[in-house]
Design a protein that fits this description.
Chain A contains 11 helices and 14 strands. The longest helix of chain A is centred in the last third of the chain and has 24 residues, at 261-284. Chain A has helices at 9-18, 32-37, 73-78, 80-85, 87-93, 99-102, 107-113, 121-126, 224-230, 237-250, 261-284; strands at 2-4, 23-26, 45-48, 58-61, 64-68, 130-135, 138-143, 148-150, 153-154, 161-168, 174-181, 192-200, 206-214, 221-222. Chain A has a domain at 174-284: 2-Layer Sandwich (Enolase-like, domain 1), CATH 3.30.390.50. Chain A starts with a strand and ends with a helix. By secondary structure, chain B is of the alpha+beta class. Helices cover 28% and strands 24% of the residues of chain B. Chain B has a 7-stranded mixed sheet, sandwiched between helices. In chain B, helix 15 links the parallel strand 18 and strand 19. In chain C, strands 2-1-5-3-4 form a 5-stranded mixed sheet, sandwiched between helices. In chain C, helix 2 packs across helix 5. The N and C termini of chain C lie far apart (50 Å). The chains are: A alpha+beta, B alpha+beta, C alpha+beta.
Chain lengths: 286, 750, 158
Amino acid sequence: MRYIRPSSLEDAVGLLANASGKAAILAGGSDLLVRMKGGFIEPDVIIDIKAIDALGRIIENDDGFVIGAAVPCAVLGENTALRNAWPGVVEGARLIGSKQVQGRCTIVGNLCNASPAADSVPALVAAGARALVRGPAGSRTIAVETIPVGPGKTSLAPGEIIEAILLDKRQRHSGDAYQRFTPRTEMDIAVVSAAVNLTLNDQGVVEKARVALGAAAPTVLLVEEAADILVGSRVDDGALERLAEACSAACRPIDDKRGTVEFRKKVAGVLAKRVALTAYQRAGQK
Amino acid sequence: MTFDPSHAARSFSSVGTRPIRPDGVDKVTGRARYGADFNMPGQLIGRILRSPHAHAVIRKIDTSKAEQLPGVKAVVTAADLPDLTNGDTSMYDILDNCMARRKALYDGHAVAAVAAIDAHTARQALKLIDVEYELLPHVTDVDQAFAADAPLINDTIITKGVDPKPDRASNVSMRSQFGHGDVDAGMAKADFVVERTFRTEQTHQGYIEPHACVANVSSDGTADLWVCTQGHFVYRQHCAQLLGLEASKLRVTSSEIGGGFGGKTHVWAEPVALALSRKAGRPVKLVMTRDEVFRATGPTSATSIDVKIGALKDGTIIAADATLRYSCGPYAGSWAEVGAMTAFACYKLENVRTVGYEVLVNRPKTAAYRAPSAPMAAFAVESAIDELAKKVGMDAVDFRIKNAAQEGTKASYGPVYGPIGIGPTLEAVKNHPHMKAPLGKNQGRGMACGFWFNFGGQTCTDLNIGMDGTVSLAVGTVDVGGSRASLSLVAAEELGIDYAQVRAVIADTSSLGYNDMTDGSRGTFSSSMATISAARNAIKILRARAAQMWDIPVEDVTWERGHAVAKGETHGNLPNLSLKEIAAASGTTGGPIAGHSEIVADGAGVSFATHICDIEVDPETGATKVLRYTVVQDAGKAVHPTYVEGQYQGGAAQGIGWALNEEYIYGKDGRLQNAGFLDYRIPVCSDLPMIDTQILEIPNPNHPYGVRGVGETSIVPPLAAVANAVSNAVGVRMEHIPMSPPRILAALEA
Amino acid sequence: MAGIAVSTTINGDQAEFLCHPDETLLEVLRERLGLMGVKEGCGTGDCGACSIILDDRLVCSCLVLGAEAEGRRIATVEGMAQGDKLHPLQQKFLEHAALQCGICTPGFLIAAKDLLAKNPDPTEEEIRFGLAGNLCRCTGYDKIVRAVQDAASVMRGA
């Protein structure tokens, strides 16, 4: 086993592409080290990307935000501009594990770990976030929801690495929110979760909506029929009830140690209602 | 030497104060040494291979590839731990649990172990051991295992306690029964009856420190073991017997212990570490992973309990009946028996009957967990009592007060109570401001009572007085939560000196006589009794030395507030001699001064507590939030009140975790699904409110200071108190612990 | 597996060590450098007993590789007291009996130190959520929260 800390993205991509045997990218390590410790993975080379300067920064530009792949989730919470623009995204990132874990873990790692219960992913999907992917064949930008394809599996090609997450510049009257259900208040992982991202017109009517559910299917679900219910509404009680029904209906969850099918279906709807209201309030204030 | 342990009213100067604990600074600076914090020169790292199967015959184990891996120094299997138990079935079970012999009986059962030059090599070596299993049908659920057609876990188990003796094997190892009166006749008279079946799931003690030890066996037959344990003398006995060592040649040193709660009363890895060390000829350090701790150690019983209680219109309980099925892992136990003894212990009952069944399942061997078996029985009984109070039309507290046991009551498990605290804790709860505080929407309040026996047992203590007049107290009961502080207070009290002049240490097994382990809430109770006895013996010598120094008869010397005092008219003008002065002269007055005590500490006073819980339930998700919690418990006499409060709070928090979220979850394959702190959810700081405490002091007549054990009772009421609170909040009786959100939501929608 | 040479700063002192690529910082601190105050409760980031501060960031040292410590600053419980003078948090943990078995205590002290550095006057709720990454099985957290409140007030006054 080797540990390498490249200082440029090109080097990292080269190492990844040319690695003989299994290569693992180390950013926060909160999944990788646990999997190594449990004997589930034994990489031949660990590529630590934290020495690559560009990957450790959050940049706000005219197009929005560029969040480097090595930025710990705790840093997202400390970025006032990001918090104001995308509070739902930040909420998701700051719920992962504990404060100690948030000091290490990254949203890109959370995405590439491809757990259906990943806390930061539903809000990214609802936000329409894109991933900037670098590989041997060059760069491409893809929607985050296309990256996880099943538990533990991603659509990334061999040698590809996610360089950054891109979030659009916030339009006015926009707001997002994320909530998950966990039995404990902290140090837990979503039993089921929901994210809603809204843009309103000047009259307070929803113009654009995206609704995403976590831990409700093998990958995070983008529920378009739920979003359609919100569009054109003022997120009134009727719309919320229909939203909850649509979300519950869209779920394809499993029974496992964290929850039952019935529970997840029901609570997905409940959370969707609650986050839709929060997102609506946030949108109305801007 | 005669020692009179009976309680005498007195005032205290040290006992009841709250000084800083003697082991505190080391623990806040990182210097305290726990099980894994010790190394020996040349040590190897041990690791254990565990069965992934719930129930399987071990056909063959091939260790040859592992043995050939460079760096591997020893590989052991059951063949290296031959059966030396001589027909002692409970020791045989311990042996089999340490290393599976014919069959693997649960997911996590040890089947082989290696010692290698480092952890990495040891892990690699485990992968090279080939075990050929023949899978057998398994059963992990207590009710399914109880059924007549269940897969048989041990075909030699014939249910004890049944007449006539059954003619075929089953998973029920024992039936036990307690009670008095005529339950059926009583029930026939009842105006109101509540009858329900309750379930509780299996939990783990959840100590943060994994099991750890360093074993060193020499070729001359001597051995040393450094280990985190609640009872190093018991570990010595077990390890010596299983390894064929002489007890006196095995020295066991207890490290600081990072939590036990009953889970470190039992050997698991220690005999294996000793066997590895013996084979390798080098010291072996063996530290469990958290996954191993969950899969292979400690859990409580899962239970299924039928309760039927009848009351008259005036609120008198006329009959009480319970049948309790407790899982005990794949070996015979006596967990249901204890549950059956405690179930109705809080009440004065004319007609009462409890029947317990020990049920074998393919899960880890059940170990004690803080007042073992009592919380589940209390959950069932106190839930039914609450419901019955409603039917009768009485307040939950008043109904319990009316039926509470008192001095002279014949307990449901047999003995007649002396002075006890159940009534006073109920009265205190009735008058507590918590009971009168308003509740909001979706909020409920519950209360419940709990009982624990408390134990005493064999205890040995040395009190050595240095030439400078300071005191070394060598104790043999492991300090699990501050007992060095409380025992130092007791020594200071009895000798009449300052707390700071006493230093208590936990002596190793070669330095002190046998002590039972720190369980049954006996640490401070029994060791304080031995400390008082040792101090009184030392005082006899101090008086004699003073008499010698003064050249007067010893009968004319008394001991008052740390000084020898000469009495009588002839030498009334002699100035008092301090302990320090007598100690300074000891070299010329007869040598070192010490007091020793070897006792069986009988008369541990029974303990009662009543708890109050406020909870809010989110009716849309089943989420719960504990808003307020109050513990009222009888301590007899609180030696160090802050640590008594700590025991009350800690037990309550563990009980709340058990009530709401903690449980072992097994898959259909018989494998444990949640062997980690992420999915075995013990409460975190933000899950709990402050936990208010009220210490009552109803002296134990059998202890010089009136002390009762305080460690365990606090975990008994919470399951029921929380369940009553949730039931009151949602209007549906909760029958299944833990009341996880999916269970609450399902109950609401049923 | 070849060893990696790492140079780092621990509690203000320079430290050099060799470690394997798969060795965690927790293992390095305990087994190679003898800093046994850093405890292992789970090895998976779920208990907080191995908490350290790495370049001003609270982390679980079981989730950091030893090799990652190159050029970083590490603070552990061993660095909290100044000579024989305890840190106010250590003193208040003793006074409030905020420990029973004590195995979680180093992690709590480090997490509380980090919390108070960022929020000198936290509410009870902020303390509870700030310390939610650390498990304690003995105390029910009551006395820990009180000790942190008291230490915070002493530190604000100091």
